[in-house]
UniProtKB/TrEMBL annotation:
PANTHER family: INNER MEMBRANE PROTEIN YPHA-RELATED, OXIDOREDUCTASE CATD-RELATED. It is a multi-pass membrane protein. Keywords: Cell membrane, Membrane, Transmembrane, Transmembrane helix. One of its GO terms (cellular component) is plasma membrane. Pfam families: DoxX. The chain crosses the membrane at residues 7-27, 47-66, 73-89, 109-129. Belongs to the DoxX family. It is found in: Cell membrane. It comes from Membranihabitans marinus. This is DoxX family protein.
């Protein structure tokens, strides 16, 4: 591997983890703490259960990703939640945010998903709790 590959994986884990926590998971966590259970039902799973699962994955798995604990496993969970966001939440949205007219698009779910897929396949590098 290249000289800075492990450092690049560390940087990727930290940035993508923080972006997911504060850009997506934090708002859902605040909803749970406020008792606001409004959330889409996905595949017949009740909204409250879907919301709790989303919080656990978007916040909990992201924290584990940042520290490099079981990177491949937590990245797989994060990848799967991005696939579900793509298929169920953003199914009718345009592909690119530039075409969303101020609304949502598939673009971020795809970008996050690809990063998580790469981390699930390659691991998180040697700078982490599990060193890979």
């Amino acid at each position: 591997m290249a000289k800075y590959t492990n450092l690049a994986f560390l940087l990727l884990r930290i940035v993508i983890g923080l972006m997911m926590i504060f850009g997506h998971g934090w708002g859902k966590l605040m909803k749970v703490l406020d008792g606001n259970w409004a959330f889409p039902e996905i595949l017949g799973i009740p909204a409250a259960v879907s919301l709790i699962l989303a919080v656990l994955i978007e916040v909990g798995c992201s924290l584990l990703l940042i520290i490099g604990y079981k990177t491949r496993i937590v990245a797989t969970f994060l990848f799967l939640i991005m696939v579900s966001a793509l298929l169920f939440i953003h199914a009718d949205d345009p592909l690119f945010i530039a075409h969303a007219n101020g609304g949502a698009s598939k673009e971020l779910a795809i970008l996050y998903g690809i990063v998580y897929l790469v981390l699930a396949l390659a691991g998180g590098g040697k700078y982490g709790v599990n060193k890979g």
